[in-house]
Amino acid sequence: MADQTIEHEKHESAAESLIEKITEKFHGSDSSSSDSDDEGDIKSAAAAVKAKVYRLFGREKPVHKILGGGKPADIFLWKDKKVSAGVLGVATANWVLFELLEYHLLTLVCHILILGLAIVFLWSNASTFINKCPPKIPNVIIPEDIVLAVASSLRVEINRALAALRDIASGKDLKKFLAVIAGLWVLSVLGACFNFLTLFYIGFVLLLSVPVIYDKYEDQIDAFGEKAEAELKKQYAVFNVKVLSKIPRGPLKAKKFL
Predict the structure, then answer these.
(1) Angle 67-236-166 (CA atoms, 0-180°, nearest 5)?
(2) Quick one: which of 213, 187, 215 has its CA closest to 202?
């Protein structure tokens, strides 16, 4: 394990030194523009060295790109702290309202509609007595293209999930199968301890905290992940030798060719 840590540190130091050379090339004098071939070699060497640096789950793109980019990724990574705090505040208020205070969704919707209709009704009738214009109620119509786009996106994601489940159940990848079974078992245990709303809220809070922590301390987390992955591979090799290899398997039937 110590050798892997030393090797990882050597790769990082080599990558940093090469990146420093590149920056010196770019910020050098104008005469250095003629050495484009040398700069290309340094860039390729730096890319090769950085490719050897371990990244968690084989990550090649930045965290912002993995989260989809755009506004959702900015919210998850707290690029706009006011919006992220507002989203977290709304989620927390909903959890407190429905879980701690045991308020029901249908009751809340009915109360909001009653309050809104009463305010608009009183305002419309009182406008004649106070000499003010009645409220302008907008005519809300949901566009058909938005509904079709949402339905199409859901269809694509559902088909992708079904294809992934079929691929896992086909028995092609034993590691993926065991990982999915372990994940479902963990979810079943969590589901027995928490209800769906609490579990959803915990997942949402983790989504707003884990990516930003990883983005801030990715080098330290990647180094720890490399050690953990090496240990998991070692344990899986032992499990494969002691358990999986001893499972009896029937003889493969010869395929019939017409």
Answers:
(1) 55
(2) 187
